[in-house]
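Hi team,

Filling in the usual template for the complex we talked about on Friday. All components are listed, including any nucleic acid strands or ligand strings, so the model treats them as one assembly.

SUBMITTER: L.P.
PURPOSE: interface mapping
COMPONENTS: three
RESIDUES: 1096
SEQUENCES:
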Amino acid sequence: MKYTEGPEIRDAKAPSGPIEERWEKRKFSAKLVNPANKRKLNVIVVGTGLAGGSAAATLGELGYNVKSFCYQDSPRRAHSIAAQGGINAAKNYRGDGDSIYRLFYDTVKGGDFRARESNVYRLAQVSVNIIDQAVAQGVPFAREYGGLLDTRSFGGAQVSRTFYARGQTGQQLLLGAYQALERQVAAGTVTMHTRHEMLDVIVSDGRARGVIVRDMVTGEIERHLADAVVLATGGYGNVFFLSTNAKGCNTTAIWRAHERGAYFANPCYTQIHPTCIPVSGEYQSKLTLMSESLRNDGRVWVPLRKNDTRAPGDIPDDERDYYLERIYPAFGNLVPRDIASRAAKNVCDEGRGVGPGGLGVYLDFRDAINRLGRDAVEKKYGNLFEMYERITGENPYDVPMRIYPAVHYTMGGLWVDYDLQSTIPGLFVIGEANFSDHGANRLGASALMQGLADGYFVLPTTIGDYLAAGPFGEVDEAAIAEAELKVRNKIDRLLSVNGTRTPDSFHRELGKLMWDYCGMERTEESLRKALERIPELREEFWQNVKVTGTAEELNQVLERAGRVADFFDLAELMCLDALVRTESCGGHFRAESQDADGEALRDDENFAHVSAWEWGADGPILHKEPLEYEYVKMTQRSYK
Amino acid sequence: MAVTGAVMVLFLVLHMLGNLKIFLGKDSFNEYAHALRTLLEPLLPYRTVLTVLEVVLVASVVLHMWAAISLSRRAGKARPVKYVAKKSQAAGYTTHIMRWGGVTIALFVVWHLLDLTFGVVNPKGFDSAPADRMIAGFEPSRWWVTLIYIVAVVMVGLHLRHGVWSAVQTLGWANSTRNKVLRLSAGLLSAVLVIGFLAPPLAITFGVVK
Amino acid sequence: MNLTLKVWRQSGPSDKGRMVTYKVEDVSPDMSFLEMLDVLNERLILEGDDPIAFDHDCREGICGMCGMVINGVAHGEQRATTTCQLHMRHFEDGATITIEPWRAAPFPVVKDLVVDRSAFDRIIQAGGFVSVPAGSAPDAHSIPVRKEDADAAFDAATCIGCGACVAACPNGSASLFTAAKITHLSLLPQGQPERLSRAKAMVDQMDAEGFGGCTNTGECTAVCPKGIPLDAIARMNADYLKANAK
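RESULT (copied from the run log):
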């Protein structure tokens, strides 16, 4: 795939000066909107997860006229709901040496030095307000007997800064945002549009001025106009077909915004979560995550011998390879996600994997049960064990769990500046949909933090600065009509092919291809192969896909086909980005770039930058945004 | 439903205690029946208290039925299209017989009043002593009356086993720590009422009380 | 496994709808129920038929989007399990399975097994929140909460809003859903200022939506994938009665 290089991005609009004063400075410099004017300003928010839900609620409360959209039947169902582990905040309630600075430092380091310092520092600063906000809303965080909030250490962090609500922190935080949103709906400041899918952004006079959506029940194509548009449409992990994302998660909103001029940053950064339930058959529709906390007491192993088909209980200890403990004696089973995932892949590639297809490793609680007793283990992990048994039919108290890595989160996303504004003025992008805060690898319990930081605190301030110049007047009718036509044409085209393969069969094939060639380990060869195969498959898709029904009804086949079409284009850009970035960093592992021990080797000289891709009719245009580290010294990560 | 139900349960308890007087002899029973009518005399005229109680009771019955009917109609409206297959998952069959149980009990009450209050279907007629009416009503040859009575009283028991707990729940007094005790108490109360109400007629039918 | 499915098909709100029989062959016991339907749908698409529309999203039992009445039981007979988490190993080879949508007037059928549950959102709009603006909250540790209260509030807050309680209730009542939210907030100090007005507003909205009344049958809690206890309804009733007495 051909690409060209455009000018560097030199200014991401972060204020200068000491890092701890930058956000304060920006808040003060941001223009305010007169309360009487807010009512005249319309804002569209697409997506109702933690970022979108909290943003729509907060903007409504500030007095803007908000329209909120989601593809689900209720805003409460966005996939933020499935987050299990917790949410980080630099509260230092434990007095264990945590601070805003430490959270900032850990996040920059955990992101393998590919995130912006200014953004991450702000995230750490705002994290403390999130907990206050959530508690005031009645989010039932875990508490101790003294009545104060409980925290735990998570994902290998050395301080206890993760707040949690049993295994469903995501649902509880989302319900808090959802309730705040419904309160604004009742107050009349937010109009809710459920079962609506965004299919294009309307750009008029160089500004994002609205969206084209499809009413998924009637099939009607609608236009909604506004003074600013906020995308909070989540990540694109479903490009792999099998991932821990919800079935409906897709890239359509951000991809179509990309086609309208928003740069796409670091698309190759994907996070593979090490502890998921393995694939059980060809029919598999999604993968289920098992909380990372299981690695606190479970021991990961595979048989020493290849193709050992004995039952796990029949394999004596000296014929087992507790490979994480062996390779990483200091961190053992608690190494970060990317490292644990790749190690599992390596032992399976050696032919030592377990379960169907040899794609699995054991996560064994035998020793924990012997040490702590079954009751104690049940108390800690009972609900997770139940979930495992429900899905696999195996009892993890007797037989070790089988786990395998799965795609979980995408650090890449639409490029945004310090104000969370994309390269299209008036188009803001928040939450997982943007690229901003996690660099090349996200730490556990940081996704919820970022979504809510963006939605409750950052965007409501920065968008005001943009809107202060509004309202922006009439929207060019030609621009609306053009966007509408583009959407209609795409739908008509999908319906007219009438081929012999279902959208899902294409999606599955694309996903397999991405997993094999652009998954946990990437090589120049694999990526070139993918870049050859994807256009062929896309071509076949447009010649041979079969979409039943009509456009004027609830048509789930049509919905899927449209999303798959966009995944093809995204997949190509991901592979290109992965090919161009010849270094390894965080979730992006290039086999060519590893040290003597097989660990990821960064190339700071050539790749300490954000790769922001501009959509071009003749192929993508790469803009590099150099990353400078004034506070955190770049080092090679080591967990040995 | 809860409040009217509670009024009726209270009545049933008193009614049962009164019935058991038959075991202390006919006179005791007749005196009790008479006392009911002369309660608070001479402060109030003959039968005032009883009439007031009867009015409250009738009102309770009517309101209870009205509430049941309106709940049932709301339920019908809330599910205009029925399931092709429907299987109950809740423990306990008593919840399923509330409505038909209620209808059965209502029909029985009509018969019961005609029999022992107004004496219309009683061999002794209206102008007789209450105890005589009772004994004549359940004499061995009229075993089928006793049978009707047994069915109805058991139905009342089942109705109350769910109803009493349900009333507590509706009034918001139930919770999981109390629930075990509450459900047990509801069962116990139902059992006591069933035994208390069935003892006299069975005793008469089997000739223990003459 | 080979199965016979009897599935409710209804092309839209104005269609009367009917049960349609399908044979599904070679079902793996390790499939989830929805994956079994996926397989059938893939076949229907290739045959040019309209695939069966059903709601689903996370497929890990938390979003509350999926839900169908399977053999007469909301989410199927396995307890504490959403439809997406139900696996085919719980069915017997050769079995006939009936699949119907949630049936309640306030949940009109959109298509096939898809229903409109927006009534639940309106119940929350009526008062299912704590009125706090963003950015002005006091420090989280300034409001201690008894652990027992926090845990009980959490139990109620686990409701995923799937609507199985309504589907299972012989009266078509939404009491368990409404009570779960009322209970969650009324047990916490944050929820106290609006406690009674919230209960009244939410219950009144529930009634206005056309849900039936509660007769404490317990069908709802039996099918609830999160096992929300009936206690919640008692608490709702207590708050509602108190609110009306004022």
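MY TAKE: The first helix of chain A runs from residue 19 to 29. Chains A and B do not touch (no CB pair under 8 Å).

Thanks, L.
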